[in-house]
Amino acid sequence: MADVPALLQPVRSIGRWVLGAMGQAGAVTLFGVRGVAVAASPPWFIGQLGRQILSVGYFSLPVVGLTAVFTGAALALNIYTGGGRFNAEQIMPQIVALGITRELGPVLAALMLAGRVSAAMAAEIGAMRATEQIDAMQTLSTDPFRYLIAPRLFAAVLTLPVLTAVADIIGIAGGWVVATRTLNFNATVYVRNTWDFLEQWDVVSGLLKAAVFGFIVALTGCYHGFNATGGARGVGRATTHAVVTGAVLIFATDYLMTSAFSR
Amino acid sequence: MSAVTPRLEWRGVRKTFGGPPVLAGFDLSVDPGRSLVIIGGSGQGKSVAVKVAAGLIEPDAGEILMDGRPVQDLTDRERRKLARRFGMLFQGSALFDSLSVWENVAFRLINADRLPRKTARERALAALERVRIGRQFTELYPSELSGGMKKRVGLARAVIGDPDIIFFDEPTSGLDPITSRAINSLISEQVKGLGCTAVTITHDLASARRIGDEVAMLHGGVVVWRGPASDLDRSGNPYVNQFVRGELEGPIKSLV
What ipTM, to 2 d.p.? Predict the structure, then answer.
């Protein structure tokens, strides 16, 4: 090991990083597969699923709604400015609707969830790991994957599309408010232009993305929390990793899915 | 050699966590209905030995035998069945923060045994009464309890499934001498009441004498002495002598 020439040290570091990243990717994948596979057979913890749906979905509504309304409003202003450069201000409602439903609705809702839910999952499960509560659960003949992980994964997959649908409506409404109050658009015409222009696939593709993002958000939170080591510091590290890897994976997956849907 | 098949046996168990071995060929056994106490300095592998036996940590080598049968040979279903024979009281109690006292105790009954909540609650309240936790505390959350009460709730949770083997990980750590004594009495009472086998790890020699039939001293990942609890003060073993007397000089090197 010590015989590696100094010039090759960077290569060695890169190689080590790549191997580490691949190992991590494999571990996360196996964790996700196990989290889903356990749901194929009983016992199911329906109560836990309900609690998670409430926590992931209902309690995220305010933050997702606020993000969507301001993003829709800012998007409307930007498109109006851009469109004005070649006298195309009137296409603003259509572009706002397209941008929100296909891209910003699912991505922003997922990012908000990564910050709110993924971090909370990593912190909660990490604290349970640090205080031996997960070990205790095993000694009480209860599989932590069934009780803790699967309900969170399914709750996020089920609720993020719903949150995205809400974000779509609120985001478009944000654009509508700005357009009709400050840019002198006719309220009815704006709505009709949006409705006539939108295709079913614009909305459905965004909701499909949201389901995948939901899985990513819960998976990164649960994985980093479950594997947290080193007490309080480890829990803090797990929380940071959950949010950062979740956000990066959301953007990467967004590109891949957009690319696949565009064909 | 005992003619009885040990209820639990560690045979040549080895475990490392990236550094020097924590367990380096650990051999120990406990007969049915006996109470074994494992003593030893900090970081000598006591908790790891118990967690390996409880199926919480996979050993790198060696085997765990239950009633003479290697656990590694069991099918997943048999292992799940085996896990139901265990109970464990954790060092920090490991109560679930999000559940009330009675829900903690009833956790196994509700989630593993699938009993109706009402039945599980009644059994949990009875178990809590046995460890002297009054009804006024049963709706509280763990964060609202003292250290001694948490241990008692943990004890009620460990025994509620009528286990064959109970592991106690530092049951009196962080408690004052009077509360420690009360916990030790409860442990003895519960173990005798259930007629189960008990494995306790502790630094507390008073606890070891009070709740143990036998004591094993662990050092460097192996058992360096084993004998009746009553022989702790006249073991003739340099490790045990140094540990019991709390001396700095001897085969156990102080970290200070």
Answer: 0.91
